Amino acid sequence: SHQISAAGQDAKAAAGVKANEEMAAQGKLEHEVALVCFSKALRSVEYWRAKAGEKKLDSILPSVRLLRGHAKKLDTEQERIAALSQRIQASKARYRSSMKELERISNTIHERRSSGSESEPEHEPVPAGSRQEV
């Protein structure tokens, strides 16, 4: 049985505390960045409302929503195209491999035939009486 010394346990605990503090600092930074982005977006909305007017913005909002929906569909289709392209590449690779294997088999057969074994049949004939009728 291994026992960790008190100093070792303290070092582990201190490292854990430090890691947690670093994660908290990173989370706080991400929160501050998101808050700045949100504030900028809010100011932009207020600016355009004042410049264009509420009625004008309300009239184009359905078109903006429709455009957003089309953009999402486009993203989905682009992902689908990428996935299909990967499948095509994999299929082409399997096809090339299969063709190479067929070529290897064909070459082996031709080599055997040309080396003088062409007088021997590749398969033994099955006697007529031994065939099983289905």
Characterize the structure shown:
With 134 residues, the protein is an all-alpha fold. Helices cover 81% and strands 0% of the residues. It has two helices and no strands. The chain has helices at residues 6-52, 54-114. It starts with 5 loop residues before the first helix and ends in a 20-residue tail after the last helix.
Strand content: under 5%
Query: How many helical stretches?
Result: 2
Shape: flat
Give the uncertain stretches in residue-range form.
none
The helix-and-strand class reads mainly alpha
Query: What's the helix-strand series?
Result: HH
> For the CA atoms, what is the radius of gyration?
37 Å
| Overall pLDDT | 85
Helical content (DSSP H or I, runs of 4+) = over 70%
Total number of β-strand segments?
0
The main β sheet shows up as: none
Please report the distance between the alpha carbons of the first and last residues.
71 Å
What topology does this entry show?
Layout: H1 6-52, H2 54-114
